[in-house]
């Protein structure tokens, strides 16, 4: 395709995103909602976030305690395994480095657990060193329930099913324990740049 | 559950994917929910999806009844929550 039929604006936009679309993905301006169940409507009054280590020791934050932690505002591209990608999404939240700071653990993995029973597994090194957040705002507004509010994980370098909605905590594990979709045919790691969609990819 | 953003499908949405691995119509199969004891047929389940997979839930209490994931050449089927998923190999003629 020569592209001669496109307006300069369209071509400019395409160029701006060159190299940012993983294989097999298409860009979208909307923000599709994918859920495996009814949307929980959680009050921040009842919300806590808990990090549990492999010995059972735990630390918890209330909503107000979490909001008092240092906040970051990442702008990132996100990629869903159902093939949509969304560029330059703007979030506000707490780096998981802050929530995992000082945890004494021999674990190599974490399981993110959500209020609705959803789980997803991740290598510990993929949620540290500035790669992952507990996000409570999207595009300048409080995160809506259908997108995982009051708070969800944001782990943009992996397919978005890893960014658990309605997250209530991280459980550090010695073994890699497959989560909700990982135990039903999806990839354990889920790197969009290597198209790690299914179990056998 | 009146939620415009996650409107569920009915259980008949499972009929297509499951037809590849069942020799009888599974939508009339009967189940009694172990959590709330509500009886329902598979076709009466509340189904969420279609992506990344279909999650069938009890129409009474939303307890998970099954998960079905369609992938090229395969269907993954997990009944309940703790039993593990079976990966069925589909005939190459399947879409």
Describe what you observe in this structure:
- The complex is a heterodimer of chains A (201) and B (95).
- With 201 residues, chain A is mainly beta.
- Chain A has one domain: Alpha-Beta Complex (Sulfite Oxidase, Chain A, domain 2), CATH 3.90.420.
- Chain A is built from 3 helices and 11 strands; from the N terminus they run αβββαββαββββββ.
- In chain A, the strands form 2 sheets. In chain A, strands 1, 4, 5, 8, 9 and 10 form a 6-stranded mixed beta sheet that branches. A 5-stranded mixed beta sheet of chain A has the order 3-2-11-6-7.
- Chain A is globular.
- Chain B is mainly beta.
- Chain B has one domain.
- Chain B is 5% helix and 35% strand.
- Chain B is built from 1 helix and 8 strands.
- In chain B, the strands form 2 sheets. Chain B has a 6-stranded antiparallel beta sheet, with no helix packed on it.
- The N and C termini of chain B lie far apart (34 Å).
- The model of chain B has no long low-confidence stretch (mean pLDDT 90).
- The interface between A and B is medium-sized, with 22 and 24 residues.
- Chain A: InterPro entries: OxRdtase_Mopterin-bd_dom, OxRdtase_Mopterin-bd_sf.
- Chain A: Pfam families: Oxidored_molyb.
- Chain A: This is Sulfite oxidase-like oxidoreductase.
- Chain A: It comes from Streptomyces rochei.
- Chain B: This is DUF6510 family protein.
- Chain B: InterPro entries: DUF6510 (IPR045423).
Number of domains of chain A: 1
Q: State mean pLDDT of chain B (0 to 100 scale).
A: 90
List unreliable stretches of 5+ residues of chain A. 1-5
What is the CATH superfamily label of chain A? Answer: Oxidoreductase, molybdopterin-binding domain
Under the CATH scheme, which architecture of chain A would be assigned?
A: Alpha-Beta Complex
Question: What Rg of chain A do the Cα atoms give?
Answer: 18 Å
- Largest sheet, strands/sense/barrel of chain B: 6 strands, antiparallel
How many separate domains of chain B? 1
Taken as a percent bin, the fraction of beta residues of chain B is 25-35%
Domain Oxidoreductase molybdopterin-binding (chain A): 37-181
Organism (chain A): Streptomyces rochei
Region (Disordered) (chain A): 1-22
Protein name (chain A): Sulfite oxidase-like oxidoreductase
């Amino acid at each position: 395709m020569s592209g001669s039929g496109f307006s300069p604006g369209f071509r400019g936009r395409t160029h701006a995103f060159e190299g940012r679309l993983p294989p097999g993905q298409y860009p979208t301006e909307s923000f599709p909602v994918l859920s495996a169940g009814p949307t929980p409507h959680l009050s921040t009054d009842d919300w806590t976030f808990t990090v549990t280590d492999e010995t059972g020791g735990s630390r918890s934050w209330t909503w107000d305690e979490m909001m008092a932690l240092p906040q970051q505002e990442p702008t990132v591209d996100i990629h869903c395994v159902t093939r949509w990608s969304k560029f330059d999404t703007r979030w506000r939240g707490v780096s998981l480095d802050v929530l995992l700071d000082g945890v004494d653990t021999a674990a190599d993995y974490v399981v993110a657990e959500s209020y609705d029973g959803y789980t997803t597994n991740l290598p510990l090194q993929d949620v540290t060193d500035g790669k992952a957040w507990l996000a409570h705002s999207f595009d300048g507004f409080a995160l809506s329930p259908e997108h995982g509010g009051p708070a969800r994980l944001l782990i943009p370098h992996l397919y978005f099913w890893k960014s658990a909605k309605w997250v209530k905590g991280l459980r550090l594990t010695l073994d890699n324990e497959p989560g909700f979709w990982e135990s039903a045919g999806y990839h354990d790691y889920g790197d969009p740049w290597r198209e790690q969609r299914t179990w056998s990819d | 559950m009146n939620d415009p953003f996650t409107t569920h499908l009915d259980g008949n949405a499972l009929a297509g994917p499951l037809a590849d691995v069942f020799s009888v119509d599974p939508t009339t199969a009967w189940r009694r929910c172990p959590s709330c004891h509500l009886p329902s047929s598979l076709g009466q389940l509340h189904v969420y999806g279609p992506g990344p997979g279909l999650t069938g839930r009890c129409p009474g209490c939303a307890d998970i009844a099954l998960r079905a994931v369609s992938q090229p050449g395969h269907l993954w089927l997990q009944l309940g929550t703790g039993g593990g998923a079976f990966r069925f190999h589909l005939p190459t003629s399947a879409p």
